[in-house]
Design goal:
Low-confidence stretches: none
Structural class: alpha+beta
Number of strands: 4
Mean pLDDT: 86
Helix content: over 70%
Strand order of the largest sheet: 2-1-3-4
Radius of gyration: 47 Å
Distance between the termini: 112 Å
Strand content: 5-15%
Number of helices: 5
Number of domains: 2
């Protein structure tokens, strides 16, 4: 081998060694960059997954809250419907009392609602025809200390019950008016009985 060949070979060996070192250094740098990129991608992916889980949890929570709200609203609607049905049935039952029960109820209502002074009690035509002979006397015996009531022989156009008139003041004691006036109190009484 000549001197020139040895010099070329030595330069080639040195270049190969330098190239190998450069390749190794570049490869290590590329591996570090790749590892860093993977780390960043994994962290970003984890953040996306975490955010998606949080959003999914939020959506589920909102949906659950809305479902509970709809359920509560529907439950209250059903409860109110049941209470209204019971009160409607009670009204119908009272309106269908036989004459003795019916006029006993009217007597109690009249005593409770009588004002001071002289009043006129108006019934509908059917009730005038079925009124017990001693109805007016029974009322007046109960309220004699504060006033008196005279039952008008002229019927009033009302469904049931009566209207008491004291001059310009009318006391509406039709069953519907009494039920409507006491509706909230009746509902409050029924709720615990029906939904204990």
């Amino acid at each position: 081998m000549t001197g020139l060949e040895r010099i070329v070979e030595k330069i080639a060996a040195e270049n190969k060694s330098a190239t190998d070192a450069m390749i190794e250094q570049t490869s290590e740098q590329a591996n570090r960059m790749l590892a860093y990129a993977r780390e960043q991608a994994n962290a970003k992916a984890q953040r996306v997954v975490d955010d998606a889980k949080k959003e999914a949890d939020r959506i589920v929570s909102v949906a659950k809250s809305q479902a509970e709200s709809v359920t509560r609203k529907r439950y209250l609607e059903i409860r109110n419907a049941v209470v209204n049905d019971v009160l409607s049935a009670a009204y119908e039952r009272i309106a269908a009392f036989d004459d003795e029960q019916y006029f006993e109820l009217l007597l109690r209502l009249c005593i409770r609602n009588a004002e001071k002074g002289e009043g006129v009690l108006y019934l509908n035509a059917r009730d005038l025809a079925h009124m017990p002979a001693d109805f007016q006397d029974s009322i007046n015996a109960a309220i004699y200390e504060t006033g008196a009531v005279q039952v008008s022989r002229e019927p009033m156009d009302i469904e049931n019950g009566f209207v008491l008139v004291y001059g310009d003041i009318e006391v509406n004691c039709t069953l519907r008016a009494v039920f409507d006036e006491k509706m909230d109190a009746l509902k409050d009484l029924l709720q615990p009985l029906l939904f204990a």
